[in-house]
Structures are given as C-alpha cells and as structure tokens.
Sequence to fold (141 residues):
Amino acid sequence: MTPEQVKSIQESFAKVAPIADTAATVFYNRLFEIAPEVKPLFRGDMTEQGRKLMKTLMVVVNGLGNLQTILPAASALAKNHVAYGVKPSHYTPVGEALLWTLQRGLGPDWTPELEGAWSAAYTTLANFMIAEAYGRQAAAE
Fold:
C-alpha cells in the first residue's frame, strides 16, 4: 500500500466514524445476507459486537502507516477467531460486506481509487490473519 492509499483510507474512515453504530449494523446485516452460514458464529449482543468491530477498525486504520505496530494484535485476533469457528473462507464475505458498507456510508466520496485502497488494505490484513491462524498454505488458497 502506498502512503497515498493509507491517507485516503484514514480520511475516509474519519467520515464513517461519526456513524459507527449505524455502519456496524449495516455491515452485519450485509454479512448475514451474503454469508448466512456465519450468523451462528455470533452469539453475543450484536450492538456490542458492532462497537468492537468499529474500535478494531479504528486501530487498524490508524496503524496502516506502520503495519508492524498492528500485526501482533491482528495475529492474536485471528487465532482467537479460530476458537469461534471462523474459517479462512469467511474472510472473503467479510471483506465484501466491509467494502459494501463503506460504499454506502461514503456515497459520492467512494471512488474506484478508494475502493482499490480499501481492498488492498483488507486483502493484506486478511491474508496475514489467515496465515497466522491457519498457516501459509491456507492464506495462498
């Protein structure tokens, strides 16, 4: 990811942060629509889950300029997700739901360049997390 991509992600997320609760609800609704098989993995309070999601996204977005600062936490998170039943294949619909949510939340500010930046960031992090939780072979699949 280029410094320009990092900056555009951070600036766009700053526009979503004020509507974090709504964005989280939209995200999970979309995720459960496109990947209903993941819904049983979420057993707790979805409002609280949404807050955790947005807090995690904020940490990740703020750390994109220096990935090494967020990778240990991403590794731990990925390993914890295994215990919840998350599979490598679940990362794809999560990414799709995230981009879909951002597109709706940002409206006309969502550009092909911004989509590319977010997609690159998500793919980088998802591949890292899959490799950490399931091994390098699973990340390559």
Summary: The radius of gyration is 14 Å. Helices lie at 3-16, 20-34, 46-63, 71-84, 91-106, 112-134, 136-140.
